[in-house]
Specification:
Low-confidence stretches: none
Mean pLDDT: 92
Order of helices and strands: HEEEEEHHEEEEEEE
Number of strands: 12
Structural class: alpha+beta
Shape: globular
Oligomer: single chain
Number of domains: 1
Strand content: 25-35%
Strand order of the largest sheet: 6-7-8-9-10-11-12
Helix content: 10-25%
Length: 256
């Protein structure tokens, strides 16, 4: 009986740790107020350079808090591309309420996700971006779950972005730990990490472990991840995301 109580205590403690982040976000009202998706902002956040004024090729990866209560747990991510000389961006993402879930269209790359301001995770420009874009298009076209969507544990929008990153040589971008679905590998158990120079094991996205140079170390339990990232000087908390001093992903060099 004592042993049973001890194990039950450990189990309840683990559950409390996993859900502490989402509970804290809900209690503090951190989520942006979005009463109806029809009226929620889809305006540009003004992060990306204007396509018409920028000749060079650009590849960007964004994320924003998911809609409704899901935002306490996860972000929605997408990839944006602009070809060299083009006067517009293309946005590549998965939208769960469509029959064909993959969307690849001209659009503002940095639009609010139904009221939630986007965060720029990675920004690659010039010749490197120009070389990446054809492979990104191929990866978008080859996504294996074009008619499937499950918010948890996947395949979902974050599964799609992780797929595109893995299938594009040289596009090494670490997705945040609260991009639930990024660890969904389908029938596979192991795969390279999206950030490159790392590996992960996952059982259907329900439980797994990840270690990579850009990602650090993550433990995934029921889709919720926690861990540490030495390169970013940060910690990863379920629901809250990564609290870090540095961004380990590629970004433009600051101009003096």
């Amino acid at each position: 009986m004592t042993r049973l109580l001890k194990y039950s205590g450990w189990f309840l403690g683990a559950l409390l740790l996993l859900f502490s982040g989402p509970i804290l976000l809900a209690a503090t009202g951190t989520q942006p107020e979005r009463n109806a998706w029809q009226t929620a902002s889809r305006d540009s956040a003004g992060i990306a350079p204007a396509a018409a004024d920028t000749h060079e090729a650009i590849v960007q990866v964004y994320g924003a808090r998911a809609w409704s209560w899901r935002g306490y747990f996860a972000v929605h991510t997408w990839v944006a591309t602009k070809e060299e000389g083009a006067d517009h961006y293309k946005v590549h993402e998965v939208i769960g309420w469509r029959q064909h879930v993959v969307s690849s269209r001209p659009d503002d790359p940095d639009r609010h996700w139904f009221g939630a301001r986007p965060e720029l995770y990675a920004d690659i420009r010039g010749e490197q971006a120009k070389a990446l874009i054809p492979d990104i298009y191929k990866a978008v076209e080859s996504y294996p779950y074009i008619n499937e969507y499950e918010a948890w544990p996947g395949p979902n929008s974050n599964t799609f972005v992780a797929w595109v990153i893995r299938q594009t040589p040289g596009l090494n971008v670490a997705l945040p730990n609260h991009a639930i679905g990024k660890d969904y590998l389908g029938s596979r158990v192991g795969a390279a990490t999206p950030g490159g120079a790392g590996y992960q094991l996952s059982l259907g996205g329900y439980v797994g472990v990840l270690a990579g140079v850009r990602e650090g170390v993550e433990l995934n339990i029921l889709g919720l991840s926690l861990g540490v990232n030495p390169l970013a000087l940060g910690i990863k908390l379920p629901g809250i995301g990564e609290l870090a001093l540095r961004n380990p992903n590629p970004m433009p060099e600051a101009t003096p």
